[in-house]
Amino acid sequence: MALFPDLDEAARGMPMIANDQPCRGAACQACADVCPTDAISVTDKQKEGEGTEVTLDLGACIGCGLCISVCPTELLTRNSSTQTSVSSLDQLTVSNIRRPGTPESMPIRSNMFRRSLALRVVSTGCSACDLEVGAAGNPIFDMERFGISIVASPRMADALLVTGPVGKGMKEALKRTYEAMAEPRLVIACGTCAISGGVHRNGYAEANGVGSVLPVDVYIPGCPPHPWNIIHGLMLAMGRVGPSQRALVRTSSPHE
What we know:
Elements: E1 14-18, H1 30-34, E2 40-45, E3 51-57, H2 66-70, E4 76-79, E5 93-95, E6 117-123, H3 128-135, E7 148-150, E8 159-163, H4 168-179, E9 186-190, H5 192-196, E10 218-220, H6 227-238, E11 249-250
Parallel strand pairs: 1-11, 6-7, 6-8, 8-9, 9-10
Antiparallel strand pairs: 1-4, 2-3, 3-5
């Protein structure tokens, strides 16, 4: 099996911006109006001579697919890639006018965890991401062949993999887990909730993701992310693959 194959047609996946498609303008707003997490904004930039800018925050997107279904010009389309993890939060914000301030293909960094990575998983949410993390270790995906294992104690862990929105009731437990880890240590935000809080953000539980509590090294978007997306994020943390903006924005027709 090839590493990081595209998602099956039956899988919804995340949306992406197709820069080769037009936008009807700020008067439309169909995608922004239907988004349940306010992950999309539409801004008229006619004065700047740039037309209409559509911005998509994949760190807040729950992959419901509503924006794709209502977009009249197919500017927002389905993303079948399983290589969507990034090492910087701003890389998850994409636009039809400007690209994030990072190259399309980032260099692979040297990393002492390149050969093996021991994970301590802390769940603070609905367990959907936990089920996918578990699936990443089954015989089909078998993340252990890449040297990735899950350990029971933070004292044995190289990386802290956090799922869920991290409500205020879990913040102290998460900090104590992190403090029990030996340095150097990594933090991986797995899923939309862990990245931004998702549908829970800015609520009474102060559940705005792990970034408000701990420094994050790798972000794995999705609600929940597919096992291949998770393995891509873990291998990114290990320094064995690099993030690619080409997996987040389409600049040419898929039929070309």
